[in-house]
Amino acid sequence: MEEIFKAEKVVKKFINTVALDQVSVSIPRGSIYGLLGPNGAGKTTLIRIINQITAPDEGNLNFNGEKLLPEHISRIGYLPEERGLYKKMKVGEQALYLAQLKGLSKKEAMSRLKKWFGKFEILDWWNKKVEELSKGMQQKVQFIVTILHEPELLIFDEPFSGFDPINADMLKKEILSLKEGGATIIFSTHNMGSVEELCDHITLIDKGRTLIEGNINEIRDRYRSDTYEVGFQGEADKLKQSLNNHYQLLETSSEGDLHKARIKLLHHTTENELLSLLIPSVHIISFNEVYPSMNDIFIKVVKEN
Amino acid sequence: MNKIGLIIKREYTTRVRKRSFIVMSILGPILFASLMVVPALIAMSEDQEVKRIAVVDSSHLFMNVIPETEYLKFDYLENARLNDIKQTYSTGGYYGVLYISHIVAFEPNSVIFYSDKQPSLATKMHISKAMENYIRDQKLKTYEIENLDNILKSVKTSISIRTIKIMETGQEKESHTGVAMAVGYLGGFLIYMFIFFFGAQLMRGVIEEKVTRIVEVIISSVKPFQLMMGKIIGIAMVGLTQFMIWVITTFLLVTLTTTLLFPEMNMTPTEQVISQDIMSSGPVEAKPEAKSEDMDEIMGFLSGLKDINFALTLGSFIFYFLGGYLLYGAMFAAIGAAVDNETDTQQFMLPLTIPLILGLLVLINSINNPDSSVSFWFSIIPFTAPIVMMGRLPFGVPDWEVGLSMALLVITFIGMTWLAAKIYRTGILMYGKKTSYKEIAKWIRHS
Hints:
The structure holds 2 protein chains of 2 kinds. By secondary structure, chain A is α/β, with parallel strands linked by helices.
């Protein structure tokens, strides 16, 4: 798979700490790449290195197969976690200024801004000062500024913080449509729900080291625990009695006459064998494997290390 | 690169449009113009009012001794009791009561002026001078020297020192200390004020960018150094604009008010203002010969003003303003980057405020002694040079000293900017921690 960005064995030391210790990431083109990790793991440092805000002490950085250079910055868009705009400046003027700093001509920036402001229905904010807007409104402006120069690589640091559910949903759709448009997105967040929903690939770093990296389905596969959920009608006790010591019943729940049971396979038994035990005793409605949530994997991996 | 141009443009336009800038641009010239015009106005209105003063002379020595002037008249009231006249002087049309006690020859504090108004210094000096002279003459007379009157006449000499500077070319040039002092002090003080004012603006700008975190967005597009220089240059241009507005509007305002208020004076506006100033500070003597002396003095001052090379003074003002501002501006920017909020700046401000205030103190010394060694050294040391050299320049400074001072200033500000850029680069991305000098030293070493 072609990579848009690759970092190899990146080391960044600060005066008293090692922020990144031999961290490698490779971000496939057209993917949404989740950058995960607890607070202080080194995510922001890595993002700043990709943005060339700070330089690494060691390691190689590649953008589109070339060495990462200052001119690539116009092809990268960055939405920092702590969002900031000049409070006293008017919205339109400020957006125009930031777009021009990214290398757009004034005319081009103006026509694109009008388009996006129209799309987000915020054209009448153009002459308002930023301090007059709510936090969510400011986020919208900042989002537009980030994507305006149509970068190939976008970095969103906690993009959903400060958005209400309606606007968060709208933002999610925008992110997905950016992906469809061919952009690659690096997505740093603590919100595991949105990771499962959006990300194709992830990397999990903690204390400056990579703990896991790869395709999200492969990772979840790796952390499977051979647990299945059975939905059935009938007597729960009958189901329990049909199981032998090759299976472990983790939990049961019921809603009216619909019951659910989570069963873990032990001793290399298969789901077919389990089903053959269950079919005679209860009426099976559904049967599926329980995948570990990213939340579980995150906590498990970080605790283990 | 044109990105730095964008930053300069933003810094400039947002600041110039601010209400505070507009207010300062309007108030500044009004303040300066009134500083020049108001004293003249006061002097004029005082001059034109005839003051009658009742004299109660218990010593009976001073009858008709104090000479009257056009605006100052004395009535010697005989047999009047002080307590009565003190009650009634103003209904009698008097400005005040001058009481001379009978022991005046031995007790100089026994002359009292009663009035509900504060008499001008000129009035007081006029009276005391006349009385002093008279008492001295009377005391001399007791020695019974022959031909005393003639001797006294020949002894009285009035000295007015003209200072003539010998130029290196051998030319002689009349110099005017007062004008040079005023121009020098004003220049030095303005630079001091501008450095502080615009330096603080720069620092607040940097803190604002850091606090709102917009700095991360910007330095993902431009280098921190470009951002810092863009801000420094943008604000320097704001300062220059403000200065130019002040110079031009003050000039216009003074021209306007003086032509309206003093149409009889047939001089150029600046000359008028200066002459008004001088008239107001001179004693209100009305002896015919004194008047012409005054006129001489005024004309002298006017020619002194012409001697000041305004193009050169303005040019060096702009150079030293820019040089001084760039030197301190870089440091102000570094401080702004090192802290999280304005209250934390206090501890770092000291190394900036001390040389600036020292410069201002030496400025006062150097307009009195422009060639003293203190003045010399402080006008060479880059941290005080912008202020102190401005004070020395109107007196004439050897070219090599000016050259050395300017060269050192340029070298130091380049070095300082380089150092400040290191602090700035690290500081703008540091949050939450309280910064110490030790920490900053580490930043400089490690970046």
